[in-house]
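User: Round two. Same drill as before: sequence, then structure, for each protein.

Assistant: Same drill it is. First protein:
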Amino acid sequence: MLKIHEKYAVLCALLFMAFVCYSTLYFLPADDHLLRVAVAHSHGEVHDHEDGDKSHVHVRDLEERRRHQVERDKSFLRARAENEVQMPPPIPKPDIGAGDDADGRRITVKQMTKFAWDSYKKYAWGSNELKPISKKGHSASIFGSGDLGATIVDALDTLYIMGLKEEYEDAHKWIEMNLDFKRLARGDISVFETNIRFVGGLLSGYALTRDEMYLKKATSIVDLLLPAFDTPTGIPLALINIVSGKAKNYGWASGGASILSEFGSLELEFDYLSNLTGNDIYRNKIKTVRDFLTSLEKPDGLYPIYLNPNNGKWGQREYSIGAMADSFYEYLLKQYLVTGKKDTRTKKEYNEAIEAMEKKMLFSSSPSNLKYFANLKGSRVEHKMEHLGCFCGGMFALDAFNEPNATRARHYMDLAKDIGHTCHESYRKSAIGIGPEAFRFTNDVEAVAVSSQEKYYILRPEVVETWFYLWRFTKDQKYRDWAWDVVQALEKHLKVEAGYSGVKDVYQVPVTHDDTQQSFLFAELFKYLYLIFSEDSVMDLTQWVFNTEAHPFPVRNS
């Protein structure tokens, strides 16, 4: 048994050892370098740290050291799990506050395009369009009842121009492997919409890439549309059933008439197709239409919107620069431009038509002196301008830019600016910063929709289209600023969880969405927004001409 003094000696020794251990812990350096090395060794990893590392953790007791090591272990395990799962990066949400210059704003539009595309691919791949709230496919009646991938074809050249390479490759693969109208088309499809969206999109794909697959697909579709031209006048019918080959017109269109904007907006695509394939059948179909229109008498120099394809007589005397007429005038000018200004007949007919409309349909509002093109119904003037009609500002600017007569060029550039301003007023006066389907001019209102049936917005591009041309030709900064306002409005009011949706009333906040992401959001609106923030060399307007769906065709100088 230990004696009393020996017990005291042992106790003192134990106390001294405890003191030494505790002191050693207390006087550890604040730098946790050794701790980090130890943790790294525990995971089989040793990393050299650069001088000046400021990520110090002051470790003063065992509990703090233990907590810090646990946190590092958790971080390591999370990182390893993420690497093993290989999850794709999340779609970056556009930061609209960061776009303080043209480059930043262009990148924002590109991110918006990717977000909308990824949503379509996830929820509606192969369908014509997307319902971004319901998160499923959607198809308008113009596409019949088949899933034709309209969004894929309409978006193709936009994806290519923006440099969205993976998205473009996905579109290319789907078109190559799946796009077959004989197999997919069901019911009656619109000849006009099929031409401007599918044929136009495929031909522009070919023009940009020289991929023969696109040309073959475009040719096969146009061949299926040709029975629509089998009428006494050669004026094509509006609808065709691909399965039966039978064509017809809309019953509501002035007793089964053909519509000016539809049969008058085929020439760019058909003429280019003949140019590429060497097969004149497509060009000849359009030449028959053009020759017939040239031979007709025009009331007061104007083109009514309805024409009977059987007896060759005009239908109801209704006139417009918007719905059911718009792209007819656009194609008169653009056919002249795309042929290297060699098709002078179309330019002459364009000049005559525009001058007649200026005399009969162009008005100025009071008190703001806003210029607008009204609709005519017989002798009655309807003081309304449609969002569709706002495209004409861009058309006038394009004409002015290519007009050799200086006086005429100044006149139409001024008119283009006036229309661009009027359409901006329709946007400014809404609650969401984007304008309605149509707006009125009365004793009480200017550039405001009156009817509830005219207050909606379905992602239309025509106003931004006009600002794009005005920016390219004038370099007035306000057009870029106005376009950026639209970007912010889209993000604030039209963006939903899985894409972008139209709204039912632009004067009401919060908005009510229509749950439709139109295919022309990609073909037109996103493209024009992207290009307005791009250099002029991106789709140089002396080298390219856009069809009415904004699909670019090359100017043929030889």
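Second protein:
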Amino acid sequence: MVSLVCAASEVWSHSIAAENEEMGMSPSVLSAGGRVAASRPYTWPSCSAPFLSCGSDPQLPHPRFLSKRQSETFCKAEFSQWTASPVVFGYGFSQCISTFIPAKRVHLIPVNPIKEDGLNPKSRKRIMPDLLTEPPAIDPVYEAHVYCNIPTIAERSMEGYAPHYFKLASVQVLIRHGDRYPLYAIPKTKRPDIDCTLLPNRKPSHPQLEAFIKHMSKGSAAQMDGTLSSLPRYPSHSLCEMGELTQTGVVQHLRNGQLLRETYINKHKLLLNDWTAKQLYLETTGKSRTLQSALALLYTFLPDFDWKKINMRHQWSTIFCSGSCDCPMRNHYLEEEQRRQYSLRVKNNDLEKIYVDMAKIVGIPTRQLRASNPIDSLLCYFCHNVSFPCTKTGCIGMEHFKVIKRHQLEDERERQEKKLYFLYALLATHPLLNQTVNRFQRIAEGKKEEIFVLHSAHDVTLSPVLSALGITEARFPRFAARLVFELWQDGKRPKEHFIRILYNGADVTFQTSFCKDYYKRSSKPMCPLEKFVSFVKRDMFLVFNSTSYYDACHRRPL
């Protein structure tokens, strides 16, 4: 049997450890769309350095679950796949190169490129990328590409990983809608020429796109709450309407559904072929883009589903507060957060100069341009590779875009530091998290509940949930972002239940404020359900010196 050792050199390991300690953070990995910390370091008996879950492959199994034979087999297949992959590894790879391979050290970049298949070695790309693939400073163009989430590379994920004796009991998925047309237009400029009809032979596409279109035309038998029944089930305008889901957005969620099906249906049998309507809980806001995103994901998750089993509920609130929306202090903290945003904006001289210059180009007052939220429209041009708009006076260019996007990123960073948004997030998301906890508790008690839950929502839904959970390293929700809550039953101790939380395929369970210390004293790569329950039922209110949601919502700070 081949012994397994950590591949990283001692010098590299020490330098990364020092870098982590200096930044005050644990080793981090990059999932498809979010900067997230690795679950924890693990030490193999034959390793001289900690094992780090590598961001280059979020599908990497937990090291505790692999026998030596499995490790060797996995290593040969996966390491070969990683080194041959054209995927550009993210920031996490700079802090994570340890993996299990046959006992010898490897060069990160080959000294002499290997000649394969008769190709000239000089023309071949590096087998492994440079260590720092994500720029150390804010790169607005790089971040914009991450936000666009163009569906070109097969995504890997860590959804569904657990010890073999654990049973998956329930899954709750919270998604942001897919790529959309802008909600705002830059005055006196031509709108982006984007076609929102669905054409299977136009990229980006999906093997099941044509079947999806046909199936959506048969959806009259579905139960749709309120105004949902009047919304189109898929986009169809040759020139997109404001806020309309694009073909890219549909494909993004067809891919999400397919990925979740492979894990939860094919592997874990969460739903059997004879699943019933009572096993699903489907909810969306009243926008066509969220309804259509939910249906796209659902179609590949449960292909050719019976429309009579579909009951889509309408959620009028973008924070999914349902009947618990009366919270004056939530509104107070949101207003304080908006004042912080305004203060940061007026202090940014570079941003103001860009707004003045853009206003001159389009021929409107600066105040009017600023009010049109130009970044929303410019991101559409950027994500769809369409030239920025021009007038007789000139053109809006990449420099304008980069300054505005950089300010947006700086605003997100300051938002984390000032904590006003965090206080808003705790109160905004409690109703939704409370629903999740209550459902998980009932399932753990053996009661019949919906075992697959899908909430189709917006960035203003996911962002506060991430903040409230304490997942501060996560990026702002990209198009088609997904946040997954898994409930697991311990097969050896059936009364014990655990949760996992995943953001865009990366395991962020141990980034949460309520479970970040638990892993230090536990052998299980999960968080006890009671930790989550205590957080939602009690700990969320401690910062407000309160013991209940109602009290926290109505008590003014001293």
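Confidence is low (pLDDT under 50) at residues 1-132.

User: Perfect.
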